[in-house]
Amino acid sequence: MSMTISEKILAKASGNENVRAGDIVWAKVDRAMMDDVLGPRVQIAEHMKRLNKKVWDPDKVIIISDHYTPPANENQAEIVKFTRDWAKEYNIKNYYEFCGPCHQVMVEGGHVSPGYLVVGTDSHTCMYGALGAFSTGIGSTEMLGVVATGEIWLKVPETIQFGFSGKTKPGVMAKDLILKATGTVGHSGATYKAMEFVGDTIRNLPMDERLCMTNMAVETGAKNGIIACDEITKAYLKEVGAAEGETFTSDEDAVYFHKYQFDVSGINPLCACPHEVDNVTEISSVGHVRIDQAYLGSCTGGRYHDLKLAADMLKGRKIAKGIRLLVNPASRQIWERCAKEGILTTLSEAGATVLASSCGACLGVHSGDLAGGEVCISSTNRNFLGRMGSKDSEVYLASPLSVAASAITGEITDPREFL
After folding, report:
1. Using CA atoms, how far apart are residues 374 and 413, in angstroms rounded to an integer?
2. Which of 70, 109, 111, 285 is the most exposed place for a label (fewest CB within 10 A)?
3. Phi, psi of 151 (to 5 degrees)
4. Would residue 11 count as lying in a domain?
5. Which range of residues forms the domain containing residue 74?
6. Are 207 and 294 members of one domain?
7. What confidence tens digit (pLDDT) does each residue in 327-379 have?
8. Is residue 267 included in any domain, yes or no?
9. Is 206 found in the same domain as 286?
10. Domain boundary residue, one of 218, 236, 262
């Protein structure tokens, strides 16, 4: 029986030789991730006590306090403390704090390998599919069952194939490619589907760029995003000390719900306008939109590759007077590497404010929230109404290069002007 890569992973996890889209399976989880927002404090701690349950396998549970670190107020500090104490009580050795957004910490911490089934209490858990894993976000109630039993039931999703071929134009990044896909299918066009990314363009992307692609799969409603393991994946796994896992590829005659094909030579730098991620247009068509803030960071657009390209553009230049350029490296490791290589110094000399590695202003909890009437261009993953602060603010999503170019001019700008 022919299967897609996602179907093969779920077949393995459920102990079946074959599965097909629409099947309901009970699957064994390889790794379970919880953050501070939707982690132990929500449902899990209370009901684990009530049920007198232990964690099924403390070595397979990873807890990362990231949304509220550093805490901006007493309430956030109490939540982080609760999460820290619970991890210690249940002997969770893989507890992280002040290390950056959970998704980047998961992959660079070596917790994800090809063929794994990974679940997490954050919708962008789908990012780990860049390593050839089936990863998806779940709610706290579902996580309670996983933490107690190590299993979860899932419906096998249909798969949509997104093929990208050709060489990208200067100034075009993976963020532009995933915005193109999102704008094409819409914010609900892949609901409970697997987004499988294929093609020579994808194979030539570095891992930092692949992680951006799969991170945003959920913005179309997808259950997961996935890229088959290849030599670039294996090199990354070795670099972070992750297990080799088990490599799966889709069969040539696998059944797909739909196939899209994009010639990337025709894709220009794009922008998602307020207040929907699928409200996508070419950035050159946005017009003279003045900004108050430019934001580089998060688990979507704050990796080494992102900050390096932005720094190269900003080197020897200054950001526009009266605007703020905030930089949130996607992890402490990335922060330290960029510091050693002078990337953070370059950004700072251009006028940027370099912040701690955290979720920060991406979801409007601290470190750069927007006031009413303010406009921000951001390399993050969502621009919903009120996402980064006031409901009277506006967020435009674009690539790190586009964010850097806009910081220079003080208005939303095509990065090719500075290349």
Report:
1. 17
2. 285
3. -130, 160
4. yes
5. 5-262
6. no
7. 999 999 999 999 999 999 999 999 999 999 998 888 888 888 999 999 999 99
8. no
9. no
10. 262
- Per-residue pLDDT band at 253 (split at 50, 70, 90): very high
CA distance 262 to 32: 34
End-to-end CA distance of the chain: 49
Q: Name the nearest CA neighbour of 283 among 168, 175, 166.
A: 175
Of the candidates 103, 75, 61, the residue with the CA atom closest to the CA atom of residue 362: 103
Among 232, 262, 292, identify where a domain stops: 262
Query: Is 114 a member of any domain?
Result: yes
Q: Helix, strand, coil: what percent of the chain each, to 5?
A: 40, 20, 40
Angle between helices 332-340 and 304-314 (to 10 degrees): 40
In this structure, what is the dihedral angle of CA atoms 50, 71, 406, 386, given to the nearest 10 degrees? 50
**In sequence order, which residues have a C-beta less than 8 Å from that of residue 405 and are 6 or more positions away?**
313, 413, 414, 415, 417, 418
Whether 283 and 192 map to the same domain: the answer is no
Say yes or no: 236 and 106 in one domain.
yes
b/e per residue 30-66 (b: at least 16 CB within 10 A): bbbbbbbbbbbbbbbbeebeeeeeebbeeebbbbbbb
What residues are paired with 326 via a beta bridge? 295, 353
Cα separations in angstroms, 221 against 122, 216, 217, 230? 14, 10, 7, 26
**Is the separation of the CB atoms in 419 and 170 below 8 Å?**
yes
Cis peptide before 288 (omega within 30 of 0): no
Per DSSP, which regions of 49-145 are E strands?
61-65, 95-97, 117-120, 134-137
Same domain membership, residue 255 and residue 142: yes
pLDDT tens digits for 8-28?
999 999 999 999 999 999 999
Task: Tell me the C-alpha distance between 375 and 243, whole Å.
Answer: 43
Is the pTM here over 0.85, yes or no?
A: yes
CATH number at 308 reads 3.30.499.10
76 CB contacts (<8 Å, ≥6 apart)? 68, 365, 366
Do residues 254 and 110 share a domain?
yes
Residue 282 has which token pair?
């070419």
Nearest residue to 13 via CA among 142, 235, 378, 23: 23
21 and 150 fall within a common domain: yes
- Residue 354: its H or E element: strand 353-354
